[in-house]
């Protein structure tokens, strides 16, 4: 099978764009699981909320993309705070299955609510004028918006990693999940910290939703198409590993892109094949810690 170099490089770049979405979505999941120990199955629905809120703001109130890139994560983050305060706080000491079932129920409620209003046919969202057009790289014409997606995702991902792993706030977060009484002795409000952590995790999902709005057709079911792959990314990288989620998401997006070039039939399953192999060889994931 003969593959031209331009076609290969083009698919690599497109894979990197998909990998950027995988990275930022799996990052939110990893933050929530790593610091709260909750498997947040509602992540895909909250990703969808970010995209639909952007569409609603544009069509009903003429609010542009750049405002919603900040406003949608804040709105969904507040919604996440309410979820944590009213529901999740009661199940932290229970088995992971309870959190999974609760967030799965939330997913069905959220998706069903938007589906009853907008259906499933899809909603179009225009690319912001500032990022319209593209750049001729010689081997392909790269849309400027897709380049922006990669840059914005990388900046947010690595800023989050730095905040959690390298700052005092991150140290309090990690310590608060392991020994909350000790951290409270230093005057830290651990319950509030946990609530804000969940809100931040789901805000990352909404941020990804706004980024995806001009690229993926907006639909109440759009989160379903990504969440299973994103869970696989988190498992491969290591449940709760921040850097594992980022690097694995980017890498699997590129691998998926290469698979579309060399063996297109396997492109939809390659991530899950890798997950099975990783779990057989290293059950804790590539970057997870063995306990």
Work out the number of β strands: 2
Shape: globular
Mean pLDDT: 88
Q: What is the CATH architecture assignment?
A: Orthogonal Bundle
- Biggest β-sheet: count, sense, barrel? 2 strands, antiparallel
Q: Could you give the distance between the termini?
A: 45 Å
What percentage of the residues does DSSP assign to strands (E)? under 5%
Task: Please provide a written account of the structure.
This protein has 291 residues and is mainly α. The protein has one domain: ABC transporter involved in vitamin B12 uptake, BtuC. The chain is built from eleven helices and two strands; from the N terminus they run ααααββααααααα. It has a two-stranded antiparallel sheet. Strand 1 (134-136) and strand 2 form a beta hairpin. The model has no long low-confidence stretch (mean pLDDT 88).
Concise synopsis of the structure shown:
The protein contains eleven helices and two strands; from the N terminus they run ααααββααααααα.
Which helices and strands, and how do they pair?
Blueprint: H1 5-36, H2 43-61, H3 65-86, H4 96-118, E1 134-136, E2 141-143, H5 144-166, H6 168-178, H7 180-184, H8 190-212, H9 224-237, H10 242-262, H11 270-281
Antiparallel strand pairs: 1-2
Helix pairs in contact: 1-5, 1-8, 1-9, 1-10, 2-3, 2-4, 2-8, 3-8, 5-6, 9-10, 9-11
